Amino acid sequence: MPAPSVPPGELIVVTTPTGQEITPIALRENRSVRTRVDELLPPAARLVPIFGPANRLAARLADTPQAPVAGEYLSYYSVHGELGDLAELAHRLREDDTVAAAYVKPAAELPLAPLAENIVAPRAPAVTPDFRVRQAYLDAAPHGIDAVWAHAQPGGLGAGVRVIDVEGAWRFTHEDLRQNQGGIIGGTVSADVGWRNHGTAVAGEISGDLNEFGVTGIAPEAHIRAISIFGIGSAAAIRSAADALDPGDIVLIELHRPGPRFDYRATPDQRGYIAVEWWPDDFAAIRYAVSRGIVVVEAAGNGGENLDDAVYDTRPGDFPATWHNPFRAGPADSGAIVVGAGAPPPGLHGRDHGPARSRLDFSNHGARLDAQGWGREVTTTGYGDLQGGPDEDLWYTDEFSGTSSASPIVVGAIAAYQGIRTRGAGRASPDQIRTLLRSTGSPQTAAPGRPTTQRIGTLPDLRAMTAKG
């Protein structure tokens, strides 16, 4: 099956700030600045505010940690329409005093394991068998996350918890995705089968239906929806997802991009690809979501990169002067839970990827990573290598991979945990969840050439999470 298509790059404009607070004067100055930038654009281009209507932003951030600096979000725009040469237009915009930054983001891609291929099986049986036995990630720690234990606890199926997946396409008509999904609520869905398979696989891991056939989701009673980045861009998709959720709900970012290591070049082996929060608008969108109490889970990316490397401290010349390296963990980071890819138990599905929970060679690593999930051998909906035939609604896979497959395992664990908390102490905050993931779980192991100092974090353990928090 061919690799997924790639969306276009994005041109982002950050205008000169009009103040940290949103006041009538700031709104008036912001309109003036926007008018000036619009004049600099080609006739068929337009500015689109990433954080929505300016007159609604203050209310959306009221009583959040970002309320005192809500005015900063007025400055972020994406440029849509017929733009011509993006780099040349960005350069021209930066020459104007009203523009603090203008940069072209390389196209976001799906963080499947590099060069992953799936061959669709020729047919499907009359009745889909139960593939639960192949989903060892549901099993007890240390090999799995102990979703089996969670499912027996009040709320442990994820009831009442909502998840929005941010990527490009899904097949919510799949036979195993019909009970707790709200479909696609934003963006333009890609027609590409690669993007569609990917979103379908992610949804199956998190909330595959609880029935007698196919797969079982980690949190099968969690309600899952989706927003596509196509047509609106990644930062706007993250912001839109946050606006559609309540505190304690979850946004999953299933994307990565080529980073500065190799001059932002897209390559099939994904070397140098990194988490999207490195770009200022995506970072701002994540901070916006987290400040509203939304748990954001983000794929670390498959670039094989040490995110602690000094290369990520260098500010690109087209970024805002206020930019800092988001991979330096601490109070100024995005607040997202960043997920790396670890190995499944050796021998699963007849294959061996190294010691269980050791870093897979493609996974990014570093102090910024919070947790890991399986990056190989994940059984879920989509792709068709485990069960295929002509009808995509019957497709299943044994080979979902990358930080793509790892991140939904962490999302599912959080959803199940929040469901249990809902019946007791109440939902945990994003910071509480991240602290819990870092202080519990089955520890990372070493593999030849991949020591535990190359941090990807622990594999969640739902029983231990619940006992501690």
Automatic annotation (TrEMBL):
The record's InterPro entries line, in alphabetical order, gives: Peptidase_S8/S53_dom, Peptidase_S8/S53_dom_sf, Peptidase_S8_His-AS, Peptidase_S8_Ser-AS, Peptidase_S8_subtilisin-like, Peptidase_S8_subtilisin-rel
Q: Which residues form a coiled coil?
A: none
GO molecular function per UniProt: serine-type endopeptidase activity
- For this chain's UniProt record, which GO biological process terms are given? proteolysis
Under Gene3D superfamilies, the record lists: Peptidase S8/S53 domain
Swiss-Prot/TrEMBL keywords = Hydrolase, Protease, Serine protease
Instruction: Show where the Peptidase S8/S53 domain sits.
Output: 192-441
- UniProt similarity note: Belongs to the peptidase S8 family.
Q: What is this protein called?
A: Subtilisin family serine protease
**Which species is the source of this protein?**
Nocardia fluminea
